[in-house]
Structure formats: C-alpha cells, structure tokens
C-alpha cells in the first residue's frame, strides 16, 4: 500500500472516529439507568444534567449523580449512584443487578416509596447502601446477604404516624454479610427478632 493510500486510510479512520460514539458504560447499565430515570420522574429532578444524552460517563458530560473513582463524575465505571435531595419521585425499579462494579448507592431526602428492589442486594461490589428520609414498605428482600462486600446498610424511613415502613423480620441471610460494620434501620415496623 502506497504512502498516499495509507494517509487517506488514516484520515478516513480518524474522520469515522469523530462521528462514532462508543460508550464506556455497558448497554445493559444504560438501559437500567433509563428505566430508573423514567420510574423516578427524571424530567422533574432538581438536577438531571445530561441524562439520556450521550455516554453516561463521557468526559465533561457525565449524567448527574453518577460518580467514578474518588467521588468525581464518572469517566469509565459507575462506582457510585448518588441522588442526595434531587427530587426523585416514584418506586425504585428492580434494575440494579447489572451494576457489577458499583460500590455505593445513596438515595437521601427523596420521594421514593414502595418496596426495596431485590436486585439492590445482587450488586456484586456494593459496599454501602444508604436510603434516608424515604418511604419504604414491604419486607427486606431475602437477597440481602447475596454478596459479602456490603459494609454499611442504612434504611431510614420518614417519620410517619400510621404504618411504619418495612415490616416483618430481618432475613437470616444477613448473617452472610461478613464485612457489615454498620446496620441502621430506623422508623421501620420490624419484628424484634434478630437472626
């Protein structure tokens, strides 16, 4: 191949690369994030910067609330999902299992209500789950204990007078959480038996 053809080919590949977007985030996670956005009334969030546009972890244009290493906006892997007082409203969809490198999930002061999705406890690398000032109901899924990296679990419902959130027993599977250092369950209607 002559020098001219090599330069032409290199120019063509460079030009093609300018118009081709390859996401650093797996499509399964993008689909799960889209479902999350729609289920929690994303258009009304206080900050929904860049959501549903481009790569969720693109340099300088990552989707708000998705963090990478060191707590900065993600550029490759989603290490943390952080929605702290962002006006989320709705029921959490059961779409978290695909986030296999995510270590931290935080929902604080949100209009989240309903049951805890079992897939939250199927996240392989989850170390910290914090849900404060939300309106959880139902039971704690038996998937709690499916992974052993969890170090901190905080489930705090808003203080309400009738019906106090999560009910039933703490699943015996909690005994598998060898790394658990903090368990905080406030304003719940759990039975006083600890496994």
Question: Can you walk through the features of this model?
Answer:
This protein is of the alpha/beta class. Helices cover 15% and strands 22% of the residues. It has helices at residues 3-19, 27-39, and strands at 66-67, 80-84, 89-91, 104-108, 111-114, 128-136, 152-157, 167-168, 182-186, 189-190. The strands form 2 sheets. Strands 1, 2, 3, 4, 5, 6, 7 and 9 form an 8-stranded mixed beta sheet that branches. The radius of gyration is 20 Å and the shape is globular. The chain starts with a helix and ends in a 5-residue tail after the last strand.
Number of strands: 10
CA-atom Rg in angstroms: 20 Å
The helix/strand class is alpha/beta
Taking the sheet with the most strands, its summary is: 8 strands, mixed
Question: Considering DSSP H and I runs of 4 or more, what fraction of the residues is helical?
Answer: 10-25%
Q: Segments where pLDDT lies below 50 for 5+ residues? A: 5-21
| Content of β-strand | 15-25%
- From the N-terminal CA to the C-terminal CA, the straight-line distance is 72 Å
Estimate the global geometry from the Cα principal axes: globular
- DSSP helix count? 2
Topology as H/E string? Answer: HHEEEEEEEEEE
Mean pLDDT: 83
Topology record:
Layout: H1 3-19, H2 27-39, E1 66-67, E2 80-84, E3 89-91, E4 104-108, E5 111-114, E6 128-136, E7 152-157, E8 167-168, E9 182-186, E10 189-190
Parallel strand pairs: 2-4, 3-5, 4-6, 5-6, 6-7, 7-9, 8-10
Antiparallel strand pairs: 1-2
Summarize the structure.
With 195 residues, the chain is α/β, with parallel strands linked by helices. It has helices at 3-19, 27-39, and strands at residues 66-67, 80-84, 89-91, 104-108, 111-114, 128-136, 152-157, 167-168, 182-186, 189-190. The longest helix has 17 residues, at 3-19.
């Amino acid at each position: 191949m002559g020098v001219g053809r090599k330069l032409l080919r290199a120019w063509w590949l460079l030009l093609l690369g300018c118009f081709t977007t390859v996401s650093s985030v797996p499509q399964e996670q993008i689909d799960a994030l889209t479902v999350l956005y729609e289920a929690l009334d994303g258009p009304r969030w206080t900050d929904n910067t860049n959501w549903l546009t481009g790569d969720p972890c693109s340099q300088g244009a990552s989707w708000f609330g998705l963090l990478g290493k060191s707590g900065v906006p993600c550029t490759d892997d989603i290490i943390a999902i952080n929605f702290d007082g962002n006006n989320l409203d709705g029921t959490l969809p059961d779409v978290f299992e695909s986030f296999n490198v995510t270590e931290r999930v935080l929902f604080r002061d949100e209009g989240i209500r309903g049951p805890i999705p079992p897939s939250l406890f199927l996240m392989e690398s989850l170390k910290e789950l914090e849900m404060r000032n939300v309106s959880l109901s139902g039971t704690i899924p038996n998937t709690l204990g499916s992974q052993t990296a969890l170090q901190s679990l905080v489930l705090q419902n808003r203080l309400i007078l009738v019906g106090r959130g999560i009910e039933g027993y703490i699943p015996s599977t909690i005994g598998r959480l060898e790394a658990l250092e903090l368990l905080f369950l406030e304003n719940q209607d759990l039975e006083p038996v600890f496994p």
